[in-house]
Write a structure and sequence with these properties.
Length: 311
């Protein structure tokens, strides 16, 4: 019995002192274009654990030479309010702005996540409670919140109003309204400094129209319309400045069609269709400049496991 205990002790000592070669951290991805903007989350790069070094880049603090495995989730601070269908935007400060959403009632509140402290703290509230709005980071550090649905009497209706969040002041202020009420639209920041708002739905039906927000003027102006009315589609910016619009739902049901917006011409033109009709999928631009389209719901209203590439 004593021999077995001694053997286990030796094994334990060997595991502690051996150390483990570090693993590389993963890179982050982009969020969905349906209703909320989705802004990318960047993963860190892991360093190597070093034998006999306490708290290395890839080792647990205060534990000598033991490397922490990569690719795991760990709890962090809790939001001040439970919410769904909100937006999340990475600010230049490194903090994350959480805005609006639903918590058995539509929310106007917002909060900030501080990754250094691992905590959420309340910040200023929007003038209008919203679900399914878009959130777009502008070059001046402000965040454009546009559209979404809000309570209106006994119904919920799409909104045309927009607001700007100022991280310096921690407040929201009104900016020019969109030319039409929209929910389920997309918002894409273009290299020319404008924001492309495309599609969506309101009480009048599904929208093919699009418009541009000019941060300098604080106004929205119409641009060319999409070839197909759609909502809950994706919008992906290419390095060329063009934007790929794919899928969503239209008057005829779930869509497989796609189109490209050319900001120089202000027009949309059809491009190749997806192999499967999808509403609410994700779209991610890859380093190869291909676009990965994944999941969503198909024509049968069942979730999809399939994925495809646009090139």
């Amino acid at each position: 019995m004593w021999l077995m205990s001694a053997s286990l002790t030796v094994v334990a000592v060997l595991v502690i002192t051996a150390g483990t070669t570090g693993c590389s951290g993963g890179s982050g991805g982009k969020g969905k274009g349906s209703g909320g903007a989705t802004t990318g989350t960047v993963g860190g790069t892991g360093g190597g654990g070093t034998t006999g070094t306490t708290g290395g880049a890839n080792s647990s603090t205060g534990t000598t030479g033991i490397s922490v495995l990569q690719g795991v989730f760990a709890p962090t601070g809790t939001m001040t309010v439970a919410r769904t269908q909100h937006t999340a935007t990475l600010l230049p400060s490194g903090k994350v702005l959480i805005v609006g959403g639903d918590s058995n009632d539509f929310l106007a509140s917002a909060e900030l996540y501080d990754p250094a402290a691992g905590t959420f703290t309340a910040t200023g509230s929007m003038a209008q409670a919203r679900v399914g709005a878009t959130a777009t980071l502008l070059p001046n550090g402000k965040v454009l919140i546009a559209g979404g649905s809000s309570p209106s009497g006994d119904i919920y209706r799409a909104q045309s109003s927009a607001e700007l969040y100022d991280p310096g002041a921690g407040t929201f202020t009104a900016t020019g309204g969109m030319t039409v009420e929209r929910n389920g639209h997309t918002a894409t920041f273009l290299p020319n400094g404008q924001v492309l708002i495309a599609g969506g739905v309101n009480l009048g039906g599904v929208l093919a129209s699009a418009e541009l927000y000019d941060p300098a003027a604080g106004t929205f102006t119409p641009t060319g319309s999409m070839t197909v009315a759609r909502y809950d589609h994706t919008a992906t910016l290419f390095p060329s400045g063009k934007v790929l619009i794919a899928g969503g739902e239209g008057d005829s049901g779930v869509l497989a069609s796609a189109e490209l917006y050319d900001p120089a011409a202000g027009t949309f033109t059809p491009t190749g269709s997806m192999t499967v009709a999808r509403v609410g999928p994700t779209a991610t631009l890859l380093p190869s400049e291909k676009v990965l389209i994944a999941g969503g719901e198909g024509s049968s209203s069942w979730p999809l496991a399939s994925a495809e590439l646009y090139e």
